[in-house]
TrEMBL record:
<dbReference type="InterPro" id="IPR011989">
    <property type="entry name" value="ARM-like"/>
</dbReference>
<dbReference type="InterPro" id="IPR016024">
    <property type="entry name" value="ARM-type_fold"/>
</dbReference>
<keyword id="KW-0605">Phycobilisome</keyword>
<dbReference type="Pfam" id="PF13646">
    <property type="entry name" value="HEAT_2"/>
</dbReference>
<protein>
    <submittedName>
        <fullName>HEAT repeat domain-containing protein</fullName>
    </submittedName>
</protein>
<dbReference type="Pfam" id="PF03130">
    <property type="entry name" value="HEAT_PBS"/>
</dbReference>
<keyword id="KW-0042">Antenna complex</keyword>
<comment type="similarity">
    <text>Belongs to the CpcE/RpcE/PecE family.</text>
</comment>
<dbReference type="InterPro" id="IPR004155">
    <property type="entry name" value="PBS_lyase_HEAT"/>
</dbReference>
<keyword id="KW-0456">Lyase</keyword>
Length: 252
């Protein structure tokens, strides 16, 4: 179990924020030219950590497979700013070769911001090897990492049926037990995404039951709304009937 306070151990919270947190829709009027890939590739090996960080972050906007091997190496950088930026760069430029290094870093990195970036990257790798570490992070890590682990598990929908089945139990556990409403909300969303890939079997029925329970009983309005949205998105008859009944009876 990680300490919730490990996110405050550095006095650089603003710099360690996810570069994806502030992304806005790009319009014709606001579009900014992307950095030059060759220039950024050269900067990835710069001796100054600040320049390595900026170059790694540039690959959140640039898709270039040449950067991935260098970004993988930068997961071991001494500077956490570089490590977190490399994680996000890999997330935008995923590779099967990055999966094992990301898993290793998830288990050994002391910094929560780095682990947050790592779980996002693992989800984007869409690899069956990512399932167990993401599920483990959802159960044991700090809240910021659990939040992103819940979302990352939705990516198992693009991996295999077995991976979808494996992702459902930890998400149900988080939906029912996690102390943080945002984690429960993300778990409800991911369960809805995964249920769309399942036939009507026991795993599907158990997942729908968990969404119904969250919709009817969770103390957090946001969680109830996300559970409702997932039920509507899946279109399960039981869920739709319950939503209609409860709303007609004035529960919400």
């Amino acid at each position: 179990m990680y300490d919730e306070e490990d996110l405050s151990l550095l006095d650089i919270e603003e710099e360690l924020e996810s570069p994806l947190d502030k992304i806005e829709p790009i319009t014709a009027e606001s579009e900014i030219p992307k950095p030059d890939p060759d220039e950024m590739l050269a900067l990835l090996d710069n001796p100054q950590p600040q320049k390595r960080m900026l170059a790694a972050r540039a690959f959140c906007d640039i898709e270039d497979s040449r950067a991935t091997p260098i970004l993988i190496r930068l997961l071991n950088d001494n500077c956490p700013l570089v490590r977190v930026s490399a994680s996000y760069g890999i997330g935008r430029n995923p590779s099967a070769d990055a999966v094992e290094p990301l898993i290793t870093q998830l288990y050994r990195d002391w910094n929560g911001y780095v682990r947050k970036g790592v779980v996002w990257a693992l989800g984007n790798c869409r690899d069956r090897r990512c399932l167990a570490p993401l599920a483990d992070a959802l159960r044991t890590d700090i809240s910021a990492v659990r939040l992103w682990s819940a979302s990352a598990l939705a990516q198992m929908a693009g991996v295999s049926y077995e991976s979808v089945v494996g992702a459902i139990p930890p998400l149900i556990e988080a939906l029912v037990q996690d102390s943080v409403g945002a984690v429960r909300s993300n778990s409800a969303w991911s369960i809805g995404q995964l249920c769309k890939e399942l036939p009507s079997n026991i795993v599907y029925a158990t997942a729908i039951d968990a969404l119904i329970q969250a919709f009817a009983e969770d103390k957090d309005l946001g969680v109830r709304e996300d559970a409702k949205a997932s039920l509507l998105g899946v279109g399960d008859p039981r869920g739709l009937q319950l939503i209609e009944t409860l709303e007609q009876e004035g529960w919400f």
